[in-house]
Amino acid sequence: MDWGMKNRISKIIRPEDGRTVMLAIDHGYFLGPTEKLENPGKIIKPLLPYADSLMLTRGILRTSLNPSVNIPIVLRVSGGSSVIGENLSNECLTTSVEDALKLNVSCVALSIFVGSKYEHRTLKNLAKLVDECERFGIPTLAVTAVGKEMTRDYRYLALSCRIAAELGAHLVKTYYCENFHKVVEGCPVPIVVAGGKKFPQPEDALRLAYEAIEHGAAGVDMGRNIWQSDFPVAMIKAIRSIVHGNSTVKEASEIFMQEKETFQAA
Ligand code: 5RP
After folding, report:
1. What is the pLDDT of residues 209-251, one digit of tens each?
2. Fewer beta carbons within 10 Å, N or C terminal of the chain?
3. In the 8-state DSSP scheme, what is residue 230?
4. CATH architecture, range 3-229
């Protein structure tokens, strides 16, 4: 692996502990103006000091983030379908590697849809992206997207993660599930977990992060459970304490409550 590639990966996964808190705000690429992410620049501003990297599309990067900001960028470069279209899995590469380089990104991300109608296409997207990005030392994060018809169990997620790694992904993002350690065991590259839909209680999102880390995840790439929270800064601080501070769910919940009270008192 060349120096540039290693350097970029070290910006995503912190070398001190091999872990990461990625903040995902790429949802609009197929969901449109998702609740609480209508104005991405505003919602993420107070969260940036607590995120190790930011995952988003080039459109939101250009319009919502000041170029002087000092946060590694994970650029989503796949898309082409919407939540109201007929085939959500029918994705292509939407951004060139040249543009990714111009945007000075630390990593590119795309979705693969294993088991879907467009499985082959999305896996070809991954292989092509890895080939192109290897030339410039840019790591690729593969997101194992799950179609509505798929079961998020460890057999399916282990299959998807392993295929992503076999095709050359440097990092994989997937979902937490029962027997998650088996997903991790079968995947030779670091795995980060998505949060999924917002849980009714913050403790549930904290437990997901805790259990994922306990079972071998390198961190989280979390969105809705942070920025849809009524107390997003409290939430990201609590998540961070689990990922980088080895907090238990109870300790992280206490951090959340303290931060919430500080916010309410201000
Ligand atoms: C969508 C994505 C999102 O970034 C991912 O789902 C993470 O966000 P959340 O924690 O809200 O699930 O990759 O395809």
Report:
1. 999 999 999 999 999 999 999 999 999 999 999 999 999 999 9
2. C
3. S
4. Alpha-Beta Barrel (3.20)
Q: Which residues contact 139 (CB under 8 A, 6 or more apart)?
A: 5, 8, 9, 12, 106, 107, 108, 133, 170, 171
DSSP letters, 106-146, are: SEEEEEE-TTSTTHHHHHHHHHHHHHHHHTTT--EEEEE--
CB burial of residue 119 (10 Å; 0-12, 13-18, 19+) = middle
pLDDT at 66 over 80: yes
Q: Indicate whether residue 143 lines ligand 1 (CB < 6 A).
A: yes
Q: Is this model's pTM higher than 0.90 or not?
A: yes
Domain boundaries, the chain: 3-229
**Ligand 1 binding pocket includes 91 (Cβ within 6 Å):** no
- What is the whole-number distance in angstroms between the Cα of residue 4 and the centre of ligand 1? 27
Q: What span, in angstroms and rounded, lies between the C-alpha atoms of 5 and 138?
A: 6
Across residues 126-133, what is the average pLDDT?
Answer: 98
Q: Using one digit for the tens of pLDDT, what is the confidence trace for 193-218?
A: 999 999 999 999 999 999 999 999 99
Q: Is 145 in the pocket of ligand 1 (CB under 6 A)?
A: yes
Active site residues: 173
